[in-house]
Amino acid sequence: MTPVASPFDPLTLGPLRLRNRFIRAGANEGMVVDGAPSRALVKHHRDLAAGGVGMTTVAYGAVSQVGRTLPNQVWLRPEILPDLRVLTDAVHAEGGAIAYQLTHGGSFVTSLKVRGPTMSASSGLNKAGLMRGNFFQRAMTPEDMQRVAGEFVEAAKLCRQAGFDAVELHMGHGYLLNQFISPLSNRRRDAYGGNAENRARFPAEVLARVKDAVGRDLAVVAKINVADGVKGGATVDDAIVTARLLLQAGADMLVLSGGRNVESGWFMFGSNHDMDEMRKVLAGSPITGLMLKWSQHGVPKITFREMYFLEHSRRIRAAVDVPLGYLGGARSLANAEAAMCEGFDAVVMARPLIHDPALVNKFRDGRAVESGCTNCNRCVPYIYHPAGTWCVMNPPNDPEINKIRAAG
Ligand SMILES: Cc1cc2nc3c(=O)[nH]c(=O)nc-3n(C[C@H](O)[C@H](O)[C@H](O)COP(=O)(O)O)c2cc1C
Hints:
The protein is an alpha/beta fold. It is built from 14 helices and 15 strands.
């Protein structure tokens, strides 16, 4: 019998070897100047690498300017190469590896006005875009799909040039590639709609093209939903089909998440948002109190459970022979060890590492056995704050270093 790995054992993902199996999940840092990484972003990821993570993931890099959801979001283009290099150098100097999460919002464009209708798997009314007047979405044509797949490839090549160790293609949470996977947003009647295999076809094609372009040098990871968590959404059986296709397309690892920003944010976080903190941080922003109220319509009251995606993720573990990163409510060293016992290859965390970037070293040295994160979700609205994301239990971030480009 293969001995169970320790979360402190190294992990090989395609061409990449990680010093341990703790990965910081992509979690929007809000640390962007002019669509480029800020010095605050460099500090944020340097601290995580110094704090012991095997790999940190820079969140939410759009593959094109129209692929952005928010104005304070990086979009990947050659002009920002010097800023990206400062970021990768800082993480490597601390012995960590660094991934870039690549995304395209599709119709999920909440804070920008796009000219014409936004793109998605299918046409229709665009709920997520109502706030900024992006009322409608159009179905992507084969030419759109070719172009967007090419944008993912170009972004991945830029990441290679900048010294990243991995790219993570975002296929969850309701963004463009997920808009194909989920029956909530895919009503196509061609080879890219209908059954689960057809719905996962475009995301798998994107992954295959990225793998072909950079896979010899970079690990190619995808973040997928174990389920959408709502009636009519993708199920864990769909996720198994998606995972199989992504394995065939060459994925080096899948990070398992869940939920959709519009329909089921509570499922993603395993707990409810703190609406008072939202209102406080967003006061004066276009996301008004009324919209916040509307966004909470029909949201169930959720009680946080550690390892809240374990039941779903186990099903995928049992069905597909691909490296898997367990994500969702891992809060302690015991949770990380349990993930290894369950056959997962890595443990991926967001909120505990926002609360304490040094948590992995503390686990290793015995200074901590669990995170002090209380799952209050008050960090979430700070993605919109001028100082960037921080845990409200910690001292605030320095807003000044979030005004200067990484290479500035
Ligand atoms: C402040 C914040 C921002 C987030 N932004 C992103 C993001 O940009 N991309 C993403 O895939 N997930 C994002 N997430 C979700 C996390 O990656 C993760 O899926 C979720 O927090 C559950 O993991 P946890 O229990 O370890 O926190 C965000 C989470 C938080 C708390």
